[in-house]
Pyrroline-5-carboxylate reductase (Leptospira bandrabouensis), 261 residues
Amino acid sequence: MNPIETVGIVGLGKMGAAIATALVKKGTKVYGFDPNLKESPVKGVVLVKTLEAIRNESEVIVIAVKPNLVVPVLKEFSKPATFVSIAAGISFSQITENAPQGSLAVRVMPNLPLVAERGAFAYFCEDNAATNVEQLFYGMGTGIRVAKESLMDAVTGLSGSGPAYVLTFLQAMAEGGLQEGLSYEESLSLAMETIEGTLVYFRSLRKEDKNLHPMEVKNWVTSPGGTTIHGLDALERGGFSTAVRDAIHRATERSKELGKG
């Protein structure tokens, strides 16, 4: 797949900087605009002083500002371009209605692991812009194109916010080991490898059997009367599964709320 050679990013906060970092790694020429910065937080990104410069230098423009700033930023552009918004809750129609006439619009929800080429993202756009998205995020992880825009809020609640859930679980595991006498570094190291190793293992199993369910593999580790079943019982008495589902639901609802302004 031919990569996009030049990309402009408006807003170099955590997510904008993450995308910039991943693009620079691929050899893409990246131009950044952020009025709050005097220098780029990402080595290799050329910081420009105007949105006009971003437009003139870039094949694709990523809008990585806070949701309430997306529309005002789009209105500042006078020439059509391909605009990719990563803002939670900002609808496809809001992008198309406020971008210059003739522009292509894309709504994307990525997550931070894309910096390590292990991101999860979803996008919604018309057919004529799909290639741009695939080229932009190529090599950054796993992406899906959703058939209905309404599903973007669920993506936001699941994978967009998901790294925070995983890191919270990681910290809880490390604290559990600490509580039982391990050092924090020992606990954290074991917890990280357990989480990552389990996912790598399960992914390898799914290559052989795409219908394999996580709970089936969980049962392989859970022997009658053993340690694991007692640990799982404690998780469920604490409402673990329900809490995770509720977290995704609440984050999804918040994404919808952000779209309403």
